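[#protein-structures] MJ: dropping L-lactate dehydrogenase (Cytochrome) here for a structure pass
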Amino acid sequence: MNRDRIHPDIGGRPSTTPTTPAASPPENEVPVSATPRVRRQLPRPADLAPLLRLRPFEPDGTKRRLSRALTIADLRTLAARRTPRSVFDYTDGAAESEISLRRARRTFANLELRPSILHDVSVVDTTTPMLGRPAALPFSFAPTGFTRMMQTEGESAVVRVAERAGIPYALSTMGTTSIEDVAAAGPGARRWFQLYVWKDRSRAEDLMARARAAGYEALVLTVDVPVAGARLRDARNGFSFPPQLSVKTFLDGATHPNWWIDLLTTPTYSFASLDSWDGTIAELLDTLFDPSMTMADLEWVRANWDGPLVIKGIQTLEDARRVSAAGADAIVISNHGGRQLDRAPVPLRLVPDARAAVGDETEVWMDTGIMSGADIVAAIALGAHATMVGRAYLYGLMAGGERGVERAVEILRSEITRTMRLLGVNAVSELGPQHVRLP
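AK: finished. structure tokens for L-lactate dehydrogenase (Cytochrome):
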């Protein structure tokens, strides 16, 4: 029998509300009464102390800036801030529409690294043979002109870092520190001399003799500059060497006072290997360099240089075979950092076929577009014996002088080591095509 539940109401009368069973919570719903509550309290000073620790202030501005640079791209950003526009653009820019440089960097960005897991990579060896001798890292410092204009420490700073890092450094014909002074700055470094062939062959012969007398190990003959490329950034900036003041450069200099102070308070910029020049870089190259040079001139070079010979600027497989047959100890697959012929071949794509074309008789190196240690590892995996880097260390030089170059090496070394470990290899010699796929 149904009974009404009796509830005493205000009037004391029984309630006639029918009895309704209590609703059960849904299966997955937690009753409110069972929800745990967060116990809150006022923070004590002892609890706040670990959270409020401030990073110690570094009074050395250069050290502070460089410590925050984690990649070569970070160094590039610092370099752009600390260097006048025309000087930065000379380093950063390329020929015409700069398609060659963009393609080279895009090729590195689009490749795929393929790791192999479960290998003991607690110890990694980055040593790489270059010209029959070990280099501590699989790259050398490429030759770059006008280096003191990037930052006043110039080539001397670069060779000192190369000596400490255990990697070779190639001094450019267009360098701003003499052959002998670079040798004195880095007496224990592996020093190479980069040569452009001039119309006045006697001058080139003199440079080779000086380099040999100063203990330079190898000659790097650059063959891709019969005439200067159309470097439009330089033309638009009115770039010249030494820099000339104009309203534009004066206003730019006002935002880079340290660079101008260095310019005005250190020895006058001049070419280390030739007489002074008053004009644009393109005019200088077209005046000095010999567009009539042919393969036959390699015999003339060999007659004046009895050490290792590197041919830099190879962009086709046929040329790789030709210079290898002519006795080159190494070739550099390079389009001059995109600074000569726009829409030139991408060096990284040529590496596997060039390695097959020359066999084991000639070492195959490459440059252009390298902005990270992973780029270097990929080039080695595709068949390069080693690489050369130019812009990467110049960004460091502009960002912080010798310490900036040191930071560039630290970044590249760290990236090379980490990439090798993640790929599952212990030594540079273990890298191969199984570790990289080129779309």
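MJ: nice. The radius of gyration is 32 Å.
AK: one more thing. The chain has one domain: 68-437.
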